[in-house]
Amino acid sequence: MSSGEGVAVLAIATVISIQFLAFTKNLKFTEQPNLSQNAEMIWAEIYPVSHEPCLVCSFYRPPDALSNPILSLKEALQHISRTKGNQSNIILAGDFNFPSIEWSDGIGHVKPGPTYGAEVNNLFVDVINDFSLEQQILEPTRNDNVLDLVLTTSPYLIDNIKVVPGMSDHEAVTFTLYTTCDAPNNNPHRTYLFHKANTESMLEDVRAFKDLFFQSDPYKRPVENNWNNFKDMIFEMTNRHVPSRMVKNRKEAPWLNREIKRKISKRRRLYNKAKATQNENDWKAYRKLRNEVNSLVDKAHNNYCKYLFDDSHCNNRKRFWSLIKNLKKDHPNVTTLESNDSLLTSSVDIANAFNDQFYTFFTDEDNETPNLDIPTYPICDHIIFSTEGIENLLQQLDTSKAPGPDGIPTQILKLCRAEIAPILQVDPYTVGGLGVNPRRELLKQVLKRPSLSTRSVPCAMVSIRMLLADMELTACWRAKETIRAAN
Q1: Of 222, 255, 364, 463, most Cβ neighbours within 10 A?
Q2: Is 267 found in the same domain as 236?
Q3: Would you state the pLDDT for residue 226?
Q4: What residues contact residue 195 under an 8 Å CB cut-off, 6+ apart?
């Protein structure tokens, strides 16, 4: 079983009467040994982000075990109902060995003269109905019998159910659990402390690079080489003259304030101390602070919800709907769709049905390219950017914004604008003597590699963020003037 919105994988299997659950690292779970007693089954609880926790179980009923495993399963489900409520998300999967139960409509019907007797077959059907479990497997998994089942209280979480060839005399069952797994912790990243930067040394390095840049005749080098040299200089200078520190991103609840975070850290320290010493006084101090923290968190959460639900705060609708979405138990995916008097369940079939429906609203045009006459107006001259204009645009950069695709901090561009502007003013149309339009070449590379961002594509010396908009406006103005002069 794999998550529908991530890379987490959960395996529920029975191999030679041995049950196991396998999880990937980014799927949080805890084993539930109190539910796995007196039967060949194993329980675990997974903690997705998009909905409530989900209890999964790998189950096996030996053919000669009669009703004892089913009674143990019933006790486990009763315990879940008492401790976690009747609305728990439960997924049971495994080899139940009930060949005499028919699942043609998803509801169990015991055939006359059932194998292993009517008592155990009816007991199993009653357990399914009592705990609102729905059976999802309708294809035979061994010969003509449906022995391997997937039972769940939340069918909207399951999709893409398939019966595929297995490794034994049973077929294997795969399905998709629609959920969002907790994103793995981002690796620590470096952040620069520009308020502690050595600005004089930075300006000296940029001036030295500018002199060497023009002495080496940049017009004889390809645009990509000029851009890489400029960018490498910026990064080396930043690392040399700007202090930095490593920052780790943390995903925290928005209602946690500084006081609560400090108490949570103190609670963690008290727990580690009590666990190491096993002293009763340390445990009492930990439990006292734990109860205080839980009370503060509940109070802060309630105040946060009241604030979002208040109609006077109309500017918080995004946070409001984000909270509502996190509280939902279902998912926005289309699990079933009726098309042409047939019920579609496969994601591929549903996508094709939507595509066919959308296609009917568009005009069926031919693919003939119209014959365009040769333009009679003169070709627009190359656009030239002045050093003063580039410096003015760099001056207007917002230093509170994050770096763009090139990764160059805006603080560096704004601080060294007077030294950088002449470098960026190099005419890209004459670079390398090829008359290359860097804007067009940039778009070509992006279209060739749609999976890559513009970070891996050279920006042709003029693709600093604020300059691109000016290029478009200047080009439109120059084209307009040229056409007006021709007329």
Answers
A1: 463
A2: no
A3: 86
A4: none
pLDDT at 8 exceeding the cut of 50:
no
123-146 burial string, b = 16+ CB within 10 Å, else e?
bbbebbeebebebbbeeebbeebb
Residue 231, exposed/middle/buried by CB under 10 A (0-12, 13-18, 19+)?
middle
| 17 and 157, same domain (yes or no) | yes
Is residue 226 a contact partner of residue 431, using CB atoms and an 8 Å limit? yes
Which residue would you say has higher pLDDT here, 332 or 222? 222
- Which amino acid is it at 290? R
Helices (H), 115-249: 118-130, 199-215, 223-241
Could you tell me the two tokens for 197? Answer: 């930067």
Of the ranges 18-27, 35-44, 386-395, which is most confident? 386-395
Lowest mean pLDDT among 16-20, 156-160, 349-353, 420-424: 16-20
What pTM was estimated for this model as a whole?
Answer: 0.44
**139, 163 contact by CB (below 8 A):** yes
Distance CA 462, CA 472 (A): 12
Whole domain around residue 95: which residue ranges? 2-177
- Looking at residue 440, the DSSP 8-state letter turns out to be H
Within this chain, do residues 227 and 273 fall inside the same structural domain, yes or no? no
